[in-house]
């Protein structure tokens, strides 16, 4: 299955998703209720060495510029191997992808690993299970994120619940010791925050629906929206795309994950859409 580039999933109940082997990148998720839930920039580039702008980029083995590797690591730019895809016995659709070291990757990150992404859809839910095994004979550490771009109708009509009371690092202002006092976060300007110690669900609230996000295995969550000015500087982000997206990322950044030889780490981000009943 090495040459497949696009993978289409359809669960027995009609939920659909579209992925690319490039980056094991989920670009589209349409649950049974019928509307696209992921933002994908119309100006996105698709090609070797490029990261797709939108959907779910996989950040590994380095978050952002928190280390010597290229920004957000190499996984989002790499060609992953499709291990399997199809419909499970209970009717959910699932695809499994893997990425391992190769000569080019060993030159920038000298570690022997196997990363796996399992994408499962059914009804109103999308589940992303990401895992990493150390197959080498020395320990390594990494930071990671599932950089999910959620599609919203209008960012000014969107609220994020579940972060009230949490500590965060403000990447825009550069301050490390912030705390969100308000229970609901409104996006009114460029926002780039790393929240730590996530234990509750995060909910994206719009007038027509709520999306409940549950993470496990990941300690942190990133909320990112570039705002108008930064949007204009990002060539592959469509004009005013910031008005129609919000990234809520399941991440482990502040305390990197260390794996001894043979050890495995896994983390999950699970999203469920709750349409508002009329
Ligand atoms: O433009 P990139 O490399 O895809 O990164 C997008 C954003 O990704 C977020 O995760 C970071 O917190 C932001 O600082 C960054 O700007």
TrEMBL record:
Keyword Isomerase: yes
Keywords: Isomerase
Top enzyme class: isomerase
Pfam families assigned: Aldose_epim
Keyword Protein transport: no
Range of residues in the leader sequence: none
Family under the similarity heading: Belongs to the glucose-6-phosphate 1-epimerase family.
UniProt EC number: 5.1.3.15
Naturally occurring in which organism (per UniProt): Undibacterium danionis
Catalytic activity: alpha-D-glucose 6-phosphate = beta-D-glucose 6-phosphate
Gene3D superfamilies, per database record: 2.70.98.10
Molecular function terms, GO-annotated: isomerase activity
Name recorded for this polypeptide: Putative glucose-6-phosphate 1-epimerase
């Amino acid at each position: 299955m090495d040459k497949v580039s696009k993978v289409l999933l359809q669960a027995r109940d009609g939920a659909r998703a579209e992925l690319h082997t490039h980056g094991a990148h989920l670009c589209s998720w349409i649950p049974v209720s019928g509307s696209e839930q992921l933002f994908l920039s119309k100006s996105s580039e698709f090609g070797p060495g490029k990261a797709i702008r939108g959907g779910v980029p996989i950040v590994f083995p380095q978050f952002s510029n928190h280390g010597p590797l290229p920004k957000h690591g190499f996984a989002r730019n790499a060609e992953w191997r499709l291990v399997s895809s199809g419909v499970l016995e209970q009717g959910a659709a699932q695809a499994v992808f893997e990425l391992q070291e190769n000569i080019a990757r060993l030159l920038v990150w000298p570690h022997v690993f196997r990363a796996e992404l399992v994408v499962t859809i059914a009804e109103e839910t999308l589940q992303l299970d990401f895992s990493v095994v150390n197959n080498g004979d020395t320990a390594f550490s990494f930071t990671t994120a599932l950089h999910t771009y959620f599609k919203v109708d209008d960012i000014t009509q969107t609220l994020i619940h579940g972060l009230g009371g949490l500590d965060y690092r403000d990447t825009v202002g550069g301050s490390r010791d912030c705390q969100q006092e308000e229970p609901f976060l409104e996006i009114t300007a460029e926002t780039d925050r790393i929240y730590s110690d996530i234990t509750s669900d995060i909910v994206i609230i719009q007038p027509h629906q709520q999306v409940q996000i549950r993470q496990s295995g990941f300690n942190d969550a990133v909320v990112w929206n570039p705002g108008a000015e930064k949007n204009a500087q990002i060539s592959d982000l469509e004009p005013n795309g910031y008005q129609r997206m919000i990234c809520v990322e399941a991440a482990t950044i502040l305390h990197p994950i260390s794996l001894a030889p043979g050890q495995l780490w896994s983390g999950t981000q699970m999203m469920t859409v709750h349409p508002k009943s009329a």
